[in-house]
Amino acid sequence: MRVLAAMSGGVDSAVAAARAVEAGHDVVGVHLALSRMPGTLRTGSRGCCTIEDSRDAWRACDILGIPYYVWDFSERFKEDVVDDFIAEYAAGRTPNPCMRCNERIKFAALLEKALALGFDAVCTGHYAKVIENADGSRELHRAADWAKDQSYVLGVLTHEQLKHSMFPLAETPSKAEVRAEAERRGLSVANKPDSHDICFIPDGDTRGWLEERIELSEGNIVDVDGETIGTHPGANAFTVGQRKGLKLGRPAPDGKPRFVLEIRPKENTVVVGPERMLAVDQLRGIKVSWAGLPIPAVDTGEEFDCMAQVRAHGDPVDARAHVERDEDGREHLVVRLIEPMRGVAPGQTVVIYQGTRVLGQATLDSARSLERPDLAPAR
């Protein structure tokens, strides 16, 4: 097969490309230039897609003896990931930019260009597995190493995209083995730190970054009864579950910390309350997509058993889910959690599983407790 290897400049993508070459595929390496500041340098393990990463990707391709290109996707990345991130926060939601990047850049824009150029598949260093069934259909599953499993951030992939996705690290039992393999192959990235945090906010200060891009205005912080107990510099800079940075002038009656329970952007209000009220047991999602062919219950609307996960490294919990359709035929995913989750916010992504199989995902429109009364309006 003709394979386009997406080379991030890290050890995972380098070893994935090496395995694709070793398997006999005709491999070409490509690094995506996503930054609008190409001179940016990585700081430790923060950030990615920098000029340093581009050079590391080139060195890996040179060792592997494969062609190497840099494709400028910075404009598309700004529009589809960065601008979306800002817009979601401005609307009082908590987005996951890695999901958007995988959905709109790595497995939409990149795959689209790869297919147009005659490639059969895109290879990445993600830890996840694609299984082909006897009928030719594809399923997305967790990787062998659950500690490094990245199937959550790939939950946005469609059946058609899975047909052209290659994850050579799927069966690798540990990251240590990947690094050891890179060392044996003479790849200079063998001991390079993993990137973390949001790649376009390399210093990790999400709130400070947002304050420069979202018009913030002072508003009230209210308790669960709607009583004003403080002020904030702008509701959009807060997120559900947040404890630090509230700067309330008086403690709660029981002396325990307060947490952000709800963001009301239209009112520019932040609602806070006790930690126990962060627990939710019903999630409703929009922008639903299915990773592979949907299971029969999706079409019938029947409730089905599943596991729900709302964070890349979060623990999945037992759940029951079903699909509702509105008058325009749009699907809405309703997930009832058997065990409540804490600090779940609109804008986050819920990915549902059966066993190791990823069924699909949705962007949360609401997350609430069926036992908790609605929070009082501000007064």
CATH architectural name of the largest domain: 3-Layer(aba) Sandwich
Query: Which bin fits the share of residues in helices?
Result: 10-25%
The stretches of 5 or more residues where confidence is low (pLDDT under 50) are: 39-47
The figure for the number of domains is 3
Strand content: 25-35%
Strand sequence of the main sheet, in spatial order? 12-15-14-13-16-17
By CATH, the superfamily of the largest domain comes out as HUPs
End-to-end C-alpha gap: 64 Å
Order of secondary-structure elements: EHEHEHHEEEHEHHEEEEEHEEEEE
Q: What is Rg?
A: 22 Å
Q: Look up the CATH topology of the largest domain.
A: Rossmann fold
Total number of helical segments?
Answer: 8
Approximate shape: globular
Structural class: alpha/beta
CATH class of the largest domain: Alpha Beta
Write down how many β-strands occur, each being a DSSP E stretch of 2 or more residues: 17
Biggest β-sheet strands, sense, barrel: 6 strands, antiparallel, barrel
Q: Provide mean pLDDT, rounded.
A: 90
Protein name: tRNA-specific 2-thiouridylase MnmA
GO molecular function, one term: methyltransferase activity
Keywords: ATP-binding, Cytoplasm, Disulfide bond, Methyltransferase, Nucleotide-binding, RNA-binding, Transferase, tRNA processing, tRNA-binding
Site (Interaction with tRNA): 126, 348
